[in-house]
């Protein structure tokens, strides 16, 4: 089996997929903002220039296509929060008052920027970026990813509550959450973390219920390649035990478990599927910095593959009941972030070029 992560590296250059709606479960709004975007003949590389007219006008200049997409994503997330019965304004007030938890958050005080990192959704790249944003000289000197992770975590923990409040309330501040189609995340997580080269003993000692499923723990022979638990067996475990987060690693947590827009006042939702356009616009338009600061980790357009096809390939191997239960585990993610999955055709969607 080829390394899935190499197949699944995405920068938003994959072709937009038309999703068959008949006999499907529709995710999000009845008129999905991401679907509406497909009808707009705009390009992420084209800046719309307002036409100058004489006389007074109360109309705002048109948004850049990427900025408009960000707005649509946030509007949809807020709508879904209300559908879920969550008063996001009240939740946001509580977070502003007490500050977000240290887990999963990084920040740059000088740039009034904050981000909640979702594992297997470009978190390595964004961790590195915030390191360069927060401590450019250190990042340039050491260029050591683990130092970025630990340094960012310590810096956020050390940030005073007043400073966190400033960023959370700043109308011009940058409050990000980076996401990815949840089924892409769990496939990528399995391929990476259950690879034979990984320290697999940790998994079975930390999550002993894994031993109740077919695996190769303690019985591995031969070359160091392949996985010590097959995808089908891991998916069965996830379907059976994923409802309790103590039974799974954080790489498989739903994004809304830690980075829920219904709880945190994010003002931008980035998607790994449109990473190039999203990241470039945010860095240039909102931070007034050069995109040279971006050092992508495992995000390479030259090796990007058929995103929809890979999800279909892996989920076609599963029992329908297993697929349905995994769907239920990540339903909030699908709805909140505007993703979709057709249980009949196994077609994933929710992103555009």
UniProtKB/TrEMBL annotation:
Q: Where the protein is mainly located, per its record?
A: Golgi
Q: What is this protein called?
A: Carbohydrate sulfotransferase
Keyword Ion transport on entry: no
Recorded E.C. number(s)?
A: 2.8.2.-
Q: What is the lineage of its organism?
A: Eukaryota, Metazoa, Chordata, Tunicata, Ascidiacea
**Similarity comment text for this entry:** Belongs to the sulfotransferase 2 family.
Enzyme's top EC category: transferase
Task: Please tell me the species this chain comes from.
Answer: Clavelina lepadiformis (Light-bulb sea squirt)
| Top-rank taxon, per record | Eukaryota
* Localization terms from the record: Golgi apparatus membrane
**Topology in the lipid bilayer:** Single-pass type II membrane protein
Q: What keywords are annotated for this sequence in UniProt?
A: Carbohydrate metabolism, Glycoprotein, Golgi apparatus, Membrane, Signal-anchor, Transferase, Transmembrane, Transmembrane helix
């Amino acid at each position: 089996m080829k390394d899935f992560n190499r197949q699944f590296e995405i920068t938003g250059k994959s072709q937009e997929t038309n999703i068959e709606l008949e006999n499907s479960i529709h995710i999000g709004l009845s008129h999905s903002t991401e679907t509406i975007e497909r009808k707009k003949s705009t390009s992420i590389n084209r800046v719309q220039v307002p036409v100058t007219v004489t006389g007074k006008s109360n109309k705002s200049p048109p948004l850049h296509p990427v900025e408009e997409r960000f707005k649509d994503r946030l509007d949809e997330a807020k709508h879904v929060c209300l559908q879920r019965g969550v008063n996001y304004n009240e939740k946001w007030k509580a977070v502003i008052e007490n500050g977000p938890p240290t887990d999963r958050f990084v920040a740059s005080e000088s740039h009034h920027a904050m981000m909640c990192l979702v594992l297997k959704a470009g978190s390595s790249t964004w961790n590195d970026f915030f390191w360069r944003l927060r401590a450019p000289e250190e990042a340039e000197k050491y260029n050591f990813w683990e130092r970025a992770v630990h340094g960012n975590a310590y810096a956020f923990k050390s940030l005073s509550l007043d400073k966190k409040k400033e960023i959370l309330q700043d109308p011009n501040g940058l409050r990000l959450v980076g996401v990815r189609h949840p089924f892409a995340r769990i496939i990528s997580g399995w391929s990476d973390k259950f690879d034979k080269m990984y320290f697999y003993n940790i998994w079975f000692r930390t999550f002993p219920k894994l031993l109740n499923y077919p695996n190769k723990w303690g019985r591995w022979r031969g070359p160091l390649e392949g996985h010590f638990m097959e995808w089908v067996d891991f998916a069965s475990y996830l379907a059976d035990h994923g409802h309790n987060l103590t039974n799974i690693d954080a790489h498989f947590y739903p994004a809304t478990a830690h980075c829920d827009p219904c709880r945190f006042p994010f003002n931008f939702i980035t998607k790994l599927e449109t990473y190039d356009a999203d990241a470039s616009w945010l860095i240039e338009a909102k931070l007034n910095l050069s995109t040279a600061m971006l050092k992508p980790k495992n995000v390479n357009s030259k090796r990007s593959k058929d995103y929809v096809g890979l999800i279909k390939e892996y989920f076609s191997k599963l029992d329908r009941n297993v697929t349905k239960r995994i769907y239920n585990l990540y339903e909030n993610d699908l709805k909140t972030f505007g993703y979709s999955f057709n249980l009949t055709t196994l077609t994933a969607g929710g992103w555009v070029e």
